[in-house]
Design a protein that fits this description.
about 25% strand, Hypothetical Protein Tm841, Chain: A,domain 3, 2 domains, 6-stranded mixed β-sheet, 11 helices, alpha/beta, 13 strands, Rossmann fold
Length: about 290
């Protein structure tokens, strides 16, 4: 008999409403803190309102992990309906969300596996979908969680920052670096590897930055099997669509999904940020 598994994640994951409702995925929101108040990520602010507030703010808004109590309340509510649960969260090296969830899981008499995705956004959702597929085959929830922890290491991603002003306001760039960066149209490319954000490269102009991440996709495709890529954007759908067109024109066998960055991610990258991410599968599975 299949286990009734509850699936939990946080608001940094990109989970479309249809997907959330079909699989009954429970999402615990982080908070975005502006000078005029606190907003739950995914609630209360449209993407346009979010970026308007970011543009007007003198300092970078801060973000806050969900409390242990918020997770505890959710986990206690699942006991009557489910046999067990799997929670998949953003990298524990980027937020305390994973630890808050883990602490809450230890406070209830209910079996919960908590998985560190080592990443953010749609790759978290991709892990959950793989877990759901394993569950439908009758796999035990502990074995599923172990498989997802191994799967997390296969992700590759590149993030082209949309606004140097966000890095400047957040103290990551000095005033001189900010001025020179704008003058030379510098576009830093970051990536998340091993659960940590690191600078990949600095290039001049956005078009060259996009070309560079497409080169990385091509290099990865020569070594691995890639069936799907995800494009996440900071309120610049038209740029995301242009990037999708470039990919589909070259790779007819790759499915491209487009989605918005969550508010928590948007406050750090700013309007115009583009991220490209995919999973590197072994070629021998072809």
């Amino acid at each position: 008999m299949k286990q009734r598994i509850a699936w939990i994640t946080d608001s940094t994951a990109y989970v479309p409403d249809e997907l959330r409702e079909r699989h009954d995925i429970h999402i615990v929101p982080l908070d975005v803190i502006f000078e005029d108040g606190t907003y739950e990520d995914g609630f209360g602010l449209s993407p346009e309102q979010l970026y308007e507030k970011i543009d007007r703010a003198q300092t970078v808004p801060t973000t806050s992990q969900p409390s242990v109590g918020k997770f505890l309340k959710l986990y206690e509510s699942l006991v009557e309906t489910y046999d067990c649960a799997i929670a998949v969260h953003l990298s524990s090296r980027l937020s305390g969300t994973y630890n808050a969830s883990l602490n809450a899981a230890g406070m209830v008499d209910f079996p919960i596996e908590v998985v560190d995705s080592q990443i953010v956004s749609y790759p978290i959702t991709a892990l959950i979908l793989k877990g759901i597929a394993l569950a439908e085959r009758g796999e035990d929830f502990r074995a599923i969680a172990a498989a997802l922890r191994k799967e997390a290491a296969k992700n590759e991603n590149y993030i082209v920052i949309g606004s140097l002003s966000q890095l400047h306001k957040g103290g990551r760039l000095s005033s001189a670096q900010f001025f020179l960066g704008n003058l030379l149209q510098i576009k830093p490319i970051f990536r998340i590897r091993g659960g940590v954000v690191e600078l990949f490269e600095k290039v001049r102009t956005e078009s060259k930055a996009v070309k560079r991440i497409l080169e990385q996709l091509e290099a990865a495709r020569k070594k691995h099997r890639i069936t799907e890529v995800q494009i996440l954007h900071g309120n610049v759908l038209e740029k995301a669509l242009e990037l999708k067109e470039s990919i589909t024109a070259r790779y007819q066998d790759i499915h491209v999904l487009i989605g918005p960055l969550s508010s928590v991610l948007g406050v750090h990258g700013g309007r115009g940020t583009l991220a490209l991410t995919w999973t590197n599968e072994p070629r021998e599975q072809e």
